[in-house]
Amino acid sequence: MERKVKVMEQGKNVVISKNVTLGRNVMIGNNVIIYEDTTIGDNTIIQDNAVIGKQPTRAKNSILPEVKKLAPAKIGSGVTIGTSAIIYADATIADDVFIADLATVRERVTIGEKTIIGRGVAVENDCQIGMKCKLETNCYITAYSLLEDNVFVAPCVVTTNDNYMARTKERLNEFKGVTVKKGGRLGANSTILPGKSIEEDGTVAAGSVVTKDVKKEELVVGIPAKKVRDVSEEQLLRNQY
Q1: Is the pTM of this model over 0.85?
Q2: Residue 180 CB contacts under 8 Å (≥ 6 apart), including other chains
């Protein structure tokens, strides 16, 4: 294990594997596990029972390709990792990200600066999350999704990537996550079907089911979601600064 300076605070029953690099003033709670070769930046807070750098365990019938060992996790500076959060190997977390209690960030995920990952949020494998996003409690970001900067995802939003619902071999070549462009917003309990895109500043109302792409700066409502009007000028991202 490499340390720039002594950890400012370390709890009980902490397991730090070989070749872990810890920055300055890292605070580690009780029962934390940090797997080998993980890099953690300065002034990061890791709360009780967090697990960082975990290698994924592949189910026997998983469609994912088998990988013997992934690259280590990389955690930036000023990051907060909440109680019982799990960050897998080959995840890259930028500076000043907040990851709340019970959140899961899977392998090959990147999260941009100043993004908030809320309590119980699941970000599945091979996702890209931009800067200054806010993913609220218990939302689900399906594998192979792209969220650009300043995206807002309300509680209990569900995104999907399998139009065949686990049937037929045809599905194996057609998995596709969702895309939410810069400033896109998804309302509480909305559902986004596989491969759909929400363009810049597109907004999905609470409880809606998105079955087709949402155009730039339009508000969609309902099941299936349909345009009701344009997003008001005062709510557009460009008018927030």
Answers
A1: yes
A2: 145, 146, 147, 148, 151, 153, 186, 197, 198, 202
- Chain-centroid distance of CA 172 in Å reads 23
CB of 137 closer than 8 Å to CB of 120? yes
**Gyration radius from the chain CA atoms:** 19
Residue 142: C-alpha distances to residues 37, 103, 125, 127, 195 (Å): 27, 14, 8, 8, 11
**What is the spatial distance between Cα 214 and Cα 239, in angstroms, rounded to a whole number?**
20
Q: What integer pLDDT is reported at residue 57 of this predicted model?
A: 84
| Residue 43: exposure state from Cβ atoms within 10 A (0-12, 13-18, ≥19) | middle
Q: Give the model's pLDDT for residue 143.
A: 96
8 A C-beta contact, residue 106 and residue 125: yes
Listed as ranges, residues in the chain with pLDDT below 70 are 1-8, 60-67, 164, 166
- pLDDT at position 2: 60
Q: Which residue has the tokens 């079955």?
A: 211
DSSP state of 208: -
